[in-house]
Predict the 3D structure of the following.
Amino acid sequence: MIVVVKAGTDGGEIRKFMAYLEGLGVSVHHSQGKYQSVLGLVGDTAEVSRESLEAHHLVEKVIPVQEPYKRANRLFHPEDTRVDIPGPDGRMRHIGGEFLGIIAGPCSVENRDQITAIAVEIKKAGAGFLRGGAFKPRSSPYSFQGLGCGGLELLLEAKKAAGLPVVSELMAIHHIELFEDVDVIQVGARNMQNFNLLRELGRCRKPVLLKRGPASTISELLMAAEYIMSGGNDTVILCERGIRSFESSTRNTLDLSAIPMLKRKSHLPVIVDPSHATGLSWMVGSMAKAAIAAGADGIMVEVHNNPEEALCDGEQAITPDSFAALMKDLEKYARIEGRVLE
Ligand code: PEP
Ligand code: MN
């Protein structure tokens, strides 16, 4: 249930009103917009009478929320959410709002020279974040599984060397302490409905990049976000990375329509991963541009300095030079959309 508070109500009155609502046994989420204050009620709202709330002197209107996701719902937070991520260079970076987050880097960390060289090159080209997997979810147990803890250490060295915040995938709850210096924790597509992992991330105070499962609906993705948010972590970034379809000429099918749909239903930032969506390096640029044109809040692209020799996903990796050229194109797209690359 959403309670829209009358314009001009002061903060003290809102706090008192929230305490009154909490006394009815629900939890209350306050969203203060430029013009409007919105209170989102979650939990058992059976005891809350819509009529008496509507009659309350501070209430403009009451809107029931039909969808099962509440905190992720745009009704709970009418303005776009912007996730702020401090960088090791002392600069705060943002994803969402006017900012397009650009995350680039290899599928997996392979060695010190590889990750550091890529980090420095993508930074030079204007990327805001370095990605690199240390724990890799591979379809085959015989494929390269990532360097694990050692990979994270190398990623953190590259973070310092390039001065970029880093994104890496967490696969197991018991690894969470290893991620203390990782700036954004990625939940991979295969783990989108690992509810224990999602709950644990709800308890941590770090931005989470939540990838859509290859066979998950938009509503399931939003419910996965709700798991994290219901634990008190509101900093969730959604990622469309392609879904399974009958088409086999691309690795997955990029669901571009998920972008406006997610942004309509939710206030959370939505980014697109054109690398896993297509599996084809030559298609990454056009899909990245299409994503920005469709309203995405950023992209995550796999970049490798030697794609032919990559230990993982080489066929979809673009080179640092192609990435630099793509950044120039994206700047033009961003300008048209009135947004800033971050
Ligand atoms: C990744 O980004 O490294 C990855 C494994 O992607 P996905 O979970 O989308 O397959
Ligand atoms: Mn990959």
The longest strand covers residues 99-105.
